[in-house]
Design brief:
By secondary structure, the protein is α+β, with helices and mostly antiparallel strands. The chain has two domains: 2-81, Glutaredoxin (3-Layer(aba) Sandwich), CATH 3.40.30; 88-193, Up-down Bundle (Glutathione S-transferase Yfyf (Class Pi), Chain A, domain 2). Helix content is 50%, strand content 8%. It is built from nine helices and four strands, in the order βαβαββααααααα. The chain has helices at 10-21, 43-48, 67-77, 88-104, 111-117, 121-143, 155-169, 178-187, 191-195, and strands at residues 2-5, 27-30, 56-59, 62-65. The protein has a four-stranded mixed sheet, covered by helices on one side. A hairpin with a 2-residue loop joins strand 3 (56-59) and strand 4 (62-65). Helix 1 (10-21) runs parallel beside helix 3 (67-77), helix 5 (111-117) crosses helix 6 (121-143) and helix 7 packs across helix 8. Residues 1-82 form the GST N-terminal domain. GO terms for molecular function: glutathione transferase activity; maleylacetoacetate isomerase activity. It catalyses: RX + glutathione = an S-substituted glutathione + a halide anion + H(+); 4-maleylacetoacetate = 4-fumarylacetoacetate. InterPro entries: Glutathione-S-Trfase_C-like (IPR010987), Glutathione-S-Trfase_C_sf (IPR036282), Glutathione_S-Trfase (IPR040079), Glutathione_S-Trfase_N (IPR004045), GST_C (IPR004046), GST_Zeta (IPR005955), GST_Zeta_C (IPR034330), GST_Zeta_N (IPR034333).
Amino acid sequence: PILYSYFRSSCSWRVRIALALKGISYDLIPVNLIKDGGQQFSAEFKALNPMQQVPALKIDGITLSQSLAIINYLEETHPNPRLLPQDPKKRAQVRMIADHIASGIQPLQNLTVLKQMGEKKMEWAQNCITSGFQALEQILQHTAGRYCVGDEVSMADLCLVPQVANAERFEVDMSPYPTITRINKALLELEAFKISHPSRQPDTPAELRA
């Protein structure tokens, strides 16, 4: 497999965690979203992913984009360890939390949107994350065990950790979200989350390396 990734992309990080958890080795091709006006806008990359976003994964003779679609494919082709619970209710909760972050928070504060916000980008990002986290904290109080849904790592957790990193980058006060904070801390102790971390990628700038 070949993963097209950017060290700081939260969507790319979700996929890196999934690949690490499932023990799938891959080659990484960095796509710098800032340099040269954004390498994702090159004709070469547009041919690979018409949405001009990372991640993209070449695997088993196909090219996939969209992090949750990629993770679902990995789940179906490499079922262990499981990232979606067998119980239909818990599975629905995992998907709900993953969608809450992947559709309801992250796109509102990603690079493309922030470019449009000009000087207000910090305030905009903080507001988007805060309103999303207020709801998420409430949801997790009903679903969480050690992790987002019960005591097994799931697709929801793969979305949570990168989003908390975004919140910290945008200086969001995390004190109103004790459940999110506790789960995030527990997940960051796991090896798959450590090795996939933005501070440990081939394209991480020297000053941001772990």
